[in-house]
Design a protein that fits this description.
- With 240 residues, the chain is α+β, with helices and mostly antiparallel strands.
- The chain has one domain (4-173): 2,3-Dihydroxybiphenyl 1,2-Dioxygenase, domain 1 (Roll).
- It is built from 4 helices and 16 strands.
- The protein has an 8-stranded mixed β-sheet with strand order 2-3-4-1-13-16-15-14. An 8-stranded mixed β-sheet has the order 6-7-8-5-9-12-11-10, with helices on one face.
- The chain starts with a strand and ends with a strand.
Length: 240
């Protein structure tokens, strides 16, 4: 049985600072049961939480995953950008072209995200978080489709996308060429086993699908660190 995508986790030098930014931008509330760091609860059908874990490691390169936020009108896009800037975000240049209509921003610790222009057909039926856009291969899109039990909704020219049968954001992978990996992943998935007590069974299932294990034990919160076929880090959580 497939895992649940329980959380998208950020490593942060100042977790409360980054959490306040995203809470204010998304309108999500802070959970009172986070095992470590800060955790935000979705206010819509997103289906996963956002966690912020403390780290001493400074951000060294562009993240391999970012949020694409949707807009229903040009005015709404402008309001989202203005709100992000008020909360401590900033404009950044990641090589976008002058004629591109999306706006590229970063949160207070430099984590990139995009505010997508209205009329984007690919994200038309998605919520405010339209997608988690990832750097990754076609193979890794297939892996995550199997790992989460989410069907492929796009598979063309080595680009893939999956989406939960229950709706919410899409997860997309742009295909080659892949960016050079620098340092550890500051954003990663946290998976919850389908049933309590099934953490080891889920680790074994993911290994059979092509994942690898990072280390041999559990961290202080009981998580098992793993990597997908592209080397992207993720965790299998203990039941809560």
């Amino acid at each position: 049985m497939a895992s649940q995508l329980f959380a998208v986790s950020f490593d942060a030098i100042d977790p409360p600072l980054v959490a306040r930014f995203w809470s204010g931008l998304l309108g999500w509330q802070v959970a009172d049961d986070a095992p470590d760091g800060v955790e935000l609860l979705p206010a819509d059908d997103t289906g996963f939480r956002i966690r912020f874990h403390p780290t001493r490691e400074q951000k060294a390169a562009q993240n391999r995953m970012h949020f694409d936020l949707t807009s229903s009108s040009l005015a709404e896009q402008q309001r989202t950008v203005a709100r992000a800037l008020e909360l401590g975000g900033r404009h950044i240049d990641v090589g976008q072209l002058p004629d591109e209509e999306h706006v590229v921003l970063a949160d207070p610790e430099g984590n990139e995200f995009c505010v997508i222009e209205p009329g984007n057909n690919f994200l038309a039926d998605c919520g405010f978080i339209g997608a988690l856009a990832c750097d990754g291969s076609q193979e890794v899109g297939y892996f995550w489709s199997e790992a989460l039990g989410w069907p492929l909704v796009w598979d063309q020219d080595q680009e893939t996308a999956i989406r939960s049968p229950h709706g919410g954001p899409k997860i997309t992978w742009g295909g080659p060429p892949l960016d050079q990996r620098v340092g550890t992943d500051r954003l990663r998935f946290g998976l919850a086993p389908a049933a309590p007590g099934d953490q080891q069974a889920e680790v074994d299932r993911l290994l059979a699908l092509g994942a690898t294990r990072i280390g041999t034990g559990h961290d202080e919160a009981g998580r098992v660190a793993m990597a997908d076929p592209d080397g992207n880090e993720f965790s299998v959580l203990t039941p809560r």
